[in-house]
Design a protein that fits this description.
The chain is of the alpha/beta class. It has 2 domains: about 1-130, Rossmann fold; about 135-270, Rossmann fold. About 30% of the residues lie in helices and about 30% in strands. The protein contains 8 helices and 14 strands. It has helices at about 10-15, 55-70, 100-105, 135-140, 150-165, 205-220, 235-245, 270-275, and strands at about 1-5, 25, 35, 45-50, 75-80, 110-115, 130, 145-150, 170-180, 180-190, 195-205, 225-230, 250, 265. The strands form 3 sheets. Strands 10-9-8-11-12-13-14 form a 7-stranded mixed sheet, with helices on both faces. Strands 1-4-5-6-7 form a 5-stranded parallel sheet. Strands 2-3 form a two-stranded antiparallel ribbon. The radius of gyration is 20 Å and the shape is globular.
Length: about 280
């Protein structure tokens, strides 16, 4: 197995103990991306590690890398630590169905693994295996009295975790007032005097987790922390988290974390990834 990667996942590739393939990624003077495979990969298994983020470069670099490996007849196994555009899985009149566009670009690969996909609707657009590193999460989760799904989308996962490790769970109802603001209607369960852990797939603006934490504290929770697979942390979310009453925020390094926030604890998934493919 050889490991190839794009710049969005270089931080992870450097931590995974899989032999890195020989390849070149650079830009020409006009900004065009250039990729060249510099070793024999014909009929050899390769792991491509690449997140798609809201940047055209992340998409093009991945497509060019896949094309180069495919032309050299490598046996490609694609792992996407974070799949951007997955939230754009529905459309109103006049809008692009962006998640389908991205998925269509990936159909050239037969073996695709994606870590904790935001929307199950993507299964309609692309064949892939979803991976959630629950075994890494369990030691953290077991430190809490109750686990909470902040909205309907997280309920199935939180219920599954509850059944697997025998920990009480509850759910919340959420209404999105604006793209950046949410309102939690109610808590369905008892959290009074409990150490509570909110579990979700991602944190972007932090609107959901902050609104959920306020509601849980009003319901009597002793302390509230959060565990999410992907830490996107957009739009001053770190500043809002630091000012909030949330005690800790656990995220993985599916995306590189450079913010330096003391409340945020980063879970390394590099060994987990290696075990999946070696």
């Amino acid at each position: 197995m050889r490991l190839f990667y794009t710049n969005t996942s270089k931080h992870l590739a450097q931590r995974i103990n899989i032999r890195q393939g020989k390849f070149t990624v650079k830009k020409f003077s006009d900004g065009e991306i250039y990729i060249k495979i510099k070793e024999q990969v014909k009929n050899k298994p390769v792991l491509v590690l690449a997140s798609i983020v809201p940047s055209e470069e992340s998409v093009l670099e991945l497509l060019f890398l896949l094309d180069a490996l495919k032309r050299e007849k490598a046996k490609i196994n694609l792992l996407i630590p974070y799949l951007g555009y997955s939230r754009q899985d529905r459309r109103m009149v006049g809008e692009s169905l962006s998640s389908k566009v991205v998925c269509d670009l990936l159909k050239q690969v037969k073996k695709i693994n994606i870590i904790h996909v935001h929307s199950s609707k993507l299964k309609k657009f692309l064949s892939y295996n979803e991976i959630i590193p629950l075994k890494i999460y369990y030691p953290i989760i077991k430190k809490y009295d109750v686990i909470v799904a902040p909205d309907k989308g997280a309920s199935n996962l939180v219920k599954k975790i509850s059944q697997n490790i025998k920990i009480p769970f509850t759910s919340m109802e959420k209404v999105r007032v604006t793209p950046k603001k949410v309102k939690i209607i109610k808590v369905k369960g008892e959290v009074k005097n409990k150490k509570v852990l909110i579990i979700d797939d991602m944190i972007s603006t932090a609107g959901t987790i902050i609104a959920a934490s306020k509601t849980l504290q009003q319901a009597g929770a002793k302390e509230v922390s959060v565990l999410a697979t992907h830490g996107i942390f957009s739009d001053k979310s770190i500043e809002r988290i630091e000012k909030s009453q949330i005690k800790k925020v656990y995220v993985t390094n599916s995306l590189q974390q450079k913010h330096g926030c003391k409340k945020v604890k980063v879970i390394d998934i590099s060994k987990f990834i290696r075990k999946m493919f070696i």
